[in-house]
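Ticket #4471: structure export looks truncated?
Reporter: QA, pipeline team
Priority: medium

Steps to reproduce: submit the single chain below to the structure queue and open the exported record.
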Amino acid sequence: MNKVILWTRQDIRSLNDLENNGVIRITRKHLEEKFDVISDHIIYLYKWFVNEAEKKAPKPEEVEFPIWCSISEEYMLRPTLNEIVYVLEVDKSEIIYFDGMKWDYVLNHHYVPKNDKDAEEYAKDMEMKGFKNSYSFIDEKIAHFYPEERKRVIDSWTRVFDIDKWDIFRIQANIWEIRTEMIKDILRV
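Actual output as written to the record:
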């Protein structure tokens, strides 16, 4: 079977996009509205994600940002008063799988280790170099002082796409857009 069921919770206003355009896409405006004061931080990281994700599944030209999806009904975000859940049937070739736990490292500007041994070696290396943490390398105010360390951290982020263990709690999916024909159901409160 080349189709997969995914679940994604979206603002109820997305129904207007669907009705008017036949497609739902995430824009910068959506992210600014959703993430408010931390939107610049999130958008910076989402742009990194987009650059890497489009190597895995081609991004339509009109798309700005991906749509986050759950691979499990059990762990999906539930509908709320202002948000609905789309139940989607998506072609496997359009899905970008990633490890949500590793994504948390990216959100916090941390090094994403290959494994436990790599994490230990990285921590020892940071301690040996006198660094208290790894996330300060990404901060634009001081990043220029540590270009090699900054690159090392950012380069490690591609490991979010490395699926070490298929775990429905950890693994998430991204798609570029929701088209009408993908929608199998809409869940509401």
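Status: closed, not a bug. The export was complete when the record was re-opened. Leaving a note from the reviewer for reference: The mean pLDDT is 93.
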